[in-house]
Amino acid sequence: MRLLFLGDMVGKTGRTAVWERLPGLVSDLRLDFVIVNGENAAGGFGITEEIFLETINAGADVVTTGNHVWDQKEAVVFCGRHEQFLRPANYPAGTPGRGSGLYFARNGARVLVANIMGRVFMHPELDDPFKAAEAILEAAPLKEQADAIVFDFHAEATSEKQCFGHFVDGRASFVVGTHTHVPTADHQILNGGTAYLSDAGMCGDYDSSLGMDKEEPLNRFISKMPKGRFEAASGPATICGVGVEISDRTGLAEAIAPLRLGPRLSETIPPFWA
Amino acid sequence: MRLLFLGDMVGKTGRTAVWERLPGLVSDLRLDFVIVNGENAAGGFGITEEIFLETINAGADVVTTGNHVWDQKEAVVFCGRHEQFLRPANYPAGTPGRGSGLYFARNGARVLVANIMGRVFMHPELDDPFKAAEAILEAAPLKEQADAIVFDFHAEATSEKQCFGHFVDGRASFVVGTHTHVPTADHQILNGGTAYLSDAGMCGDYDSSLGMDKEEPLNRFISKMPKGRFEAASGPATICGVGVEISDRTGLAEAIAPLRLGPRLSETIPPFWA
Amino acid sequence: MRLLFLGDMVGKTGRTAVWERLPGLVSDLRLDFVIVNGENAAGGFGITEEIFLETINAGADVVTTGNHVWDQKEAVVFCGRHEQFLRPANYPAGTPGRGSGLYFARNGARVLVANIMGRVFMHPELDDPFKAAEAILEAAPLKEQADAIVFDFHAEATSEKQCFGHFVDGRASFVVGTHTHVPTADHQILNGGTAYLSDAGMCGDYDSSLGMDKEEPLNRFISKMPKGRFEAASGPATICGVGVEISDRTGLAEAIAPLRLGPRLSETIPPFWA
Amino acid sequence: MRLLFLGDMVGKTGRTAVWERLPGLVSDLRLDFVIVNGENAAGGFGITEEIFLETINAGADVVTTGNHVWDQKEAVVFCGRHEQFLRPANYPAGTPGRGSGLYFARNGARVLVANIMGRVFMHPELDDPFKAAEAILEAAPLKEQADAIVFDFHAEATSEKQCFGHFVDGRASFVVGTHTHVPTADHQILNGGTAYLSDAGMCGDYDSSLGMDKEEPLNRFISKMPKGRFEAASGPATICGVGVEISDRTGLAEAIAPLRLGPRLSETIPPFWA
Ligand SMILES: [Fe+2]
Ligand SMILES: [Fe+2]
Ligand SMILES: [Fe+2]
Ligand SMILES: [Fe+2]
Ligand SMILES: [Fe+2]
Ligand SMILES: [Fe+2]
Ligand SMILES: [Fe+2]
Ligand SMILES: [Fe+2]
């Protein structure tokens, strides 16, 4: 199975780039399943229902999020209306929306996708991400309820990300980190067969600070005082993601490689799909 | 000028790999200058004088460090004995050792190397890294006192790293992040001509948690209690670094690309050196 | 019912002061129940079984702890042997020891004591302290299973402490914060009848940094480098605690006032016991 | 010299209480100098020029601030117009306003007041608070340029506060912490003669979360999701502060005791002024 994951779309430039390129990628690369992180799609802060729908329309099967999920107030309402929209699973019971779901890929495979948030340097108030993963895996073990299992682990610390990868190794098809907005080059298949990448990076303007116009962030690092608001950068976006080839037989990973398209970073397509 | 930077050597496996491979790289790639981060070379915690000397012996021109610099007590003493050893420059005045130095490359160029530590999620008690860089750049501007200027910016947060890059853009040859132990794939030449990479990754065992045996870190994420000590992982190391081609004329970057050698990550050599 | 809570005993001077004064306080003030926080009793770091037993021997009915609970390795073992020893309740299921217990006071009342740890600025990896409290209160509601309910809420942030107080207001007899080692003067009875104090302070040498010899902590704030180890201060200790009068009828608080005995802080005894 | 310090005024209820009570306190207690922290006076977030002027009008000689200083945008402008307005001194050179000033007390004494912000758990991007204090003390040593020296040390961590106290002990008249909004009871005169209190508490509604209406903060601790905005609580305020008797001869402290007036906390007036 051919699965593509695209990192956090940031602002108009990021989401537009995804909307423009994704349909072609789906057909050219014959993708079976596409996941896109959308937590920064609305000006850098959250996502609207309209943006969500447009992203699904462009070919995404699931839109994941992260710490910015509630930045647009309407998310609290529309998150409950769409099965393909995920907020982090380790919010407490009773939180609107869902943190994981079972979806059908174009090849008929059942794909379990879960969005989980890390806590180190981030959100101590969330539930244990390791326990959340455990519960999800127990409810739908690989090759029983699901033909593929993917975690979008939205976290800051590389230690927490790597340990999370080892924790589900052999029980999930793929763990991809998000949140730092910087793509990492440590893609590998762990000992148990789970594909792993610490961070997918973002889909946005890489002449920026994390996709935001660099002037105000830089001003704050220098003057230590706010001067204006944070606004999404508007230069041309580079799409960052990662492709994984998942075995139909075992549900584990056969290959993993980055996908990068755009003007600022080195472009690449998973060689096993070229 | 051909400059190679290697990320944090972690433990025996990491430093041994560097010692074994570096001499060949220096001659095969005709490297003019080599910088290696050594903050985790001694079992993951700090560096000894013996390890430092062996690394210089293997071909490093400068050894940089970071938050683990003082983990081995002897560092407080030997840091003052060796010009080629750098601790973060933004320790207060009076701190033993030095945070930057001017060195001669094999091609005769004068290379200014500075080691600076970020503060976000890290060490609020250090001096302002941006001011520290400013002072260094004012004392030895590019193409006046130095033919090339390189910053090892040891930091956690990608926002601080990117803003630091923009801050010195056009005034330094190269900014490379370290500390997360995960190589990033966002190498680019910024608008002003400075080569930039958010993190060089580590030279160590990538079947691990940041180069440390994964058992105890994973135990702590699950049980929230210490069971044993953190120990360096001992599997075969992957060397992670980055090569930069620096213009003799402008001191700015002409090309940047990662270098990765070893069993776990995708191997690559800067194409402009191949 | 007369309940006395004493803050974190720090080092030899702190625990010795408690051992010497507590028997007299129990008889002079005709105390029905005594809780002492012992997380720093062993040189500032954790507590040994011997120290625990001596503290029980001096008149404590329960010894609570906090983030330092496992500093002495033997705690992992002996915590399971003593009902009167509590570690924070919001460690995950399967953690040795217990986080709450039901005890008999000298007047025959059943006293539920729970030790819970905050997460803000502290330990994001622990379970939700609010949920932990909810579970405890549901299992043994006030005036059903318990005649009095006391929470030692070990936390840093005053916002988390105050919100915790409001959360259990009317359902617990008393919430006392610990961990900052500084006694606060905000004792009050909340609207629902729960006595509240943000921090009990410590039993230790107040000519110090949190009960530790001030030289090394001060050195680190100034030089940003370790010079030696942290050691408990050894000057005469001031005992800091708080007395609460709990209604036999409602289980809620009738009065709360601090108790301080020693050379550095203003001495005081709850006026309703004088 | 009789010096009164009042903690952070929070919202309308806090500032109104101060404005109503302060004139009477100045005359009844024959105060020579009054400092009030105003960082939360405007609805909990910052301070306006009008509120500042009204506070001066009520009898304050200096208004200090903290991390909320820039919350009201106009502060960036008016901070430069008023010598009696202080923002934290450890902002970088070039920041609008001033961090310390020399003032005349009603008894003719020259009083140096400095506002400094801590960094632990707070603002790593600010300059070293210890160095900032050192520079201030060197520029105007006690009994040379100043007859009294007072630091409002706005910080979270008790360790940083206590170490700051020891750092200036014997060189300042008084160190008072602010920011936690909870009054501490650890007032003492340090070995060198400096009066010290870890936190003055706030002037605000103590049936709240730090002076803010408790509903939304509590909601966030429970649901982990924002539901509304933070708003200042509106119940009757308790005034919290501390009185210090400073020697005209030495500039050091002769006595220190809390002042608390209002409905929720135990009321007290410095006994040496009663
Ligand atoms: Fe994001
Ligand atoms: Fe994020
Ligand atoms: Fe490192
Ligand atoms: Fe590091
Ligand atoms: Fe403690
Ligand atoms: Fe503690
Ligand atoms: Fe405040
Ligand atoms: Fe504050």
UniProtKB/TrEMBL annotation, chains A, B, C, D:
InterPro entries: Metallo-depent_PP-like, YmdB-like. It comes from Xaviernesmea rhizosphaerae. This is Metallophosphoesterase. Gene3D superfamilies: 3.60.21.10. NCBIfam families: TIGR00282 family metallophosphoesterase. Pfam families: YmdB. PANTHER family: 2',3'-CYCLIC-NUCLEOTIDE 2'-PHOSPHODIESTERASE.
